Amino acid sequence: MLLTRDLFHPIINDAVYFDKPLLSYWLVLLASIATGGVGELATRVPSALAGLVALWATRSLGRRLWTEGVAQGAGWILLTSFGFVSWSRIAAADMQNLAAVILAVAWFFAHERSPGLRAYLVFYLICVVGAQMKGLAAVVVPLLALLPWLLRERRWRAHVRVSHLAAALFCGVLYYAPFYWAGHEALPQGYVPQASGLGGLDLVWRENITRFFHPFDHVEPFYLYLYELPRVLLPWSPLFIAAAIVGFASLHRLDPHTRWLLEAIAIIFLFFSASGSRRWYYILPLAPFCALHMSVFLALPGWEKTKRVCLGLIGAALLTVGLVYLASPLLWPLALRWSFVPTQALRIATPSIGVIVLAIFAVSQVWPEFLARYTGMDRPLAGLAVCAAVLLSGAFGVQQPSVETLRTTKPFALRLRELVRSPEEIVFFEEAPTDVIFYLNQPRPVSVVRGKEALQRVLEGDSVPRLIVTTQSSLAELRGVLPDDALQAPVAAEEVTPWEEALPWQKGRRTKKLVALRCASLEQ
Is the N-terminal amide bond of 115 cis, ω within 30° of 0? Predict the structure, then answer.
């Protein structure tokens, strides 16, 4: 978009890519102003900010419907859940989708007693913003979540208003406007339509409606979320399972807000399970509701033994991880047997994180009031939340970045960027990986040729590229097109790591490694 000065046609290399809506890209552009360019940081900032918005909305909803203690507990549980932290730092729109869902629900309850045009307009604007970042789930999921509340005692009748209809129609037009504009504006010169031939609204239908009823990819078993939701909620999964069982067993004895929360969780879970297309992170929007329910469960009187057992299991798991981290210097030889050589940063960070976790456990036992006072939580929960925060911060803030130095595609792409003076000097055979295109950072599209004959015509043309990039598995196909010495001596090659050489199940990954070959006509 920066290169073409066209904000309404998202483009990868030379082709329009409307599989995701526009607003997620616009947020990256805004972030790039602060970060100095469209780099990795700019692409991650929107997800991080969306995570903060989701935390605020979750706490706001907990405070309004229950108590400050419930809000504080839910915020800490959400903040220290694996799925939430993981997707709050990834360059994807899923966290924006989650934030829009919980923010819309929080807004509804904040203005339920004073409905009017402004209240309805903001509610649907939040949904539309979410839909323009990820998809129509940001509209459907909040409405499904509120359905049990509106149906009980016929509360829906209070919202049968002209102002409600006007706000919904206006926001519907607002959602449609970018697609209409994109459909009536010419593509930038030199760029081509999407390979599928579908426009923006066509892809909205395919990605949201067709995918739900007639999935064409991401087909997983209907019970996928029975084990993926606990994965998202780690390390709090035992507490959620117990809270859900107890909650549904005593549903009719719960207060109206807690009953609504359980029913909303059930409806959202069934909605995602009913979809034909499933991936583990599609269930992410349920995480704030689950965090709220766990916090409510801990605040409810009764079931004290069940609570102690769940918190004990979570504590044992966190303590075990801390001990393993502390003992990691003794365990690295096992990794070396699989040819994995840990970085120096990883060697130092892992036992250090273990020491901190064990120190927090000691403080929580000797001086529990200290952690409770500074976290605003009850004593049994405070130590666990801080330990989980340290482990997740260490994993995503220190350990993963140190392991990312072992990535192979990024260094290869950066090496290509050093070798290429202009986009015309490079050709990709069969496919141009999007991450390589990102790191190449060329001012114009690079060429992609498919098929041996097409490549032969390029090499026989007037403007012969300096480099051809392909995968290891395609080298055999290029015999006879390029000289043997060019095939046997790549100018640059994506590294094959020692563990990829050693592990049999990594064989398929090795064949996808990229190589850059110099064309014989330009050898010097």
Answer: no
Closest CA to 83 of 268, 279, 280: 280
The answer to whether residues 11 and 191 touch, using CB atoms and an 8 Å cutoff, is yes
pTM (2 d.p.): 0.90
Choose the most confident range, by mean pLDDT, from 31-35, 49-53, 114-118, 247-251: 49-53
The span from the first CA to the last CA of the chain, in angstroms, equals 37
Amino acid letter for position 173: V
- DSSP-assigned beta bridge partners for residue 468: 427, 517
The proportion of the chain whose per-residue pLDDT surpasses 90, expressed as a percent, equals 49
Residue by residue, what is the 3-state secondary structure of 399-451?
HHHHHHCCCCHHHHHHHHHHHCCCHHHEEEECCCCHHHHHHHCCCCCCEEECC
Rounded to whole angstroms, what are the CA distances from 310 to 76, 241, 494, 497, 514?
17, 9, 46, 41, 48
Instruction: Give residue-wise pLDDT tens across range 237-258.
Output: 999 999 999 999 999 899 999 9
pLDDT at residue 521 tops 60? no
DSSP 256-273: HHHHHHHHHHHHHHHHHH
CA distance 410 to 427: 18
Q: Which two tokens stand for residue 316?
A: 């044992």
pLDDT exceeds 70 at position 273: yes
Cβ neighbours of 5 (radius 10 Å): 7
Q: Which amino acid is at 111?
A: H
- Give residue 502's pLDDT band: very low, low, confident or very high (50, 70, 90): low
Q: How far is CA 246 from CA 144, 298, 310, 411, in A?
A: 23, 11, 12, 51
* pLDDT attached to residue 522: 42
Tokens of 426: 């490079």
94 neighbors 284 (Cβ within 8 angstroms): yes
